[in-house]
Amino acid sequence: xxxxxxxxxxxxxxxxxxxxxxxxxxxxxxxxxxxxxxxxxxxxxxxxxxxxxxxxxxxxxxxxxxxxxxxxxxxxxxxxxxxxxxxxxxxxxxxxxxxxxxxxxxxxxxxxxxxxxxxxxxxxxxxxxxxxxxxxxxxxxxxxxxxxxxxxxxxxxxxxxxxxxxxxxxxxxxxxxxxxxxxxxxxxxxxxxxxxxxxxxxxxxxxxxxxxxxxxxxxxxxxxxxxxxxxxxxxxxxxxxxxxxxxxxxxxxxx
Length: 255
Known about the structure:
Layout: H1 3-27, H2 35-91, H3 96-113, H4 120-142, H5 149-177, H6 183-202, H7 208-232, H8 244-252
């Protein structure tokens, strides 16, 4: 589900909790709103607020860690691709077609992982071609027939770089398809936020300032959820890992 939709649902749920608190306040007998009752509710909500802060910090840390890991992986992938291309270039002119295939494979990776920067047709086509091109690239490197010790060394380096590149590429694929945010954590946090705003509204006077404060609080909570979800989906949405490292590597290939 889209980050905007989930954050919108969160905003609506939290605001509904606040509205329910205001409604319950108007129907409670006066002795339920005594100072003793307020103290108990404040202690209970203080505990829930502490747990909510812990869960929120865990979710943000998890999403940020996943984002940083994938961003580092993209930079490392670009570096490995350049090393692979240089190894093939030093091997000799017979690797020219292999280097061209490497360039094509990198272009496929860009279209596959950054669909916003390509058309839908290109993105769909890249998914099917990427695996095929990388498989063919491996076959061509293995098929090389080194004639000197230097060429044998370069072939070994090319195979190692290919293995590292393939591992990073599949790692990015699995991380992109999965999620580092447990759904249960997110749901529990939203429920606790609903309870918190409901308790705030329970003892709040009915005036414009109170209503505005509750709306701002609900907006802040939904924006935090939006930020968490965006960090957890770094190849789509507003907060994206830049494709510049791979595009810079693509410009270096074949030189």
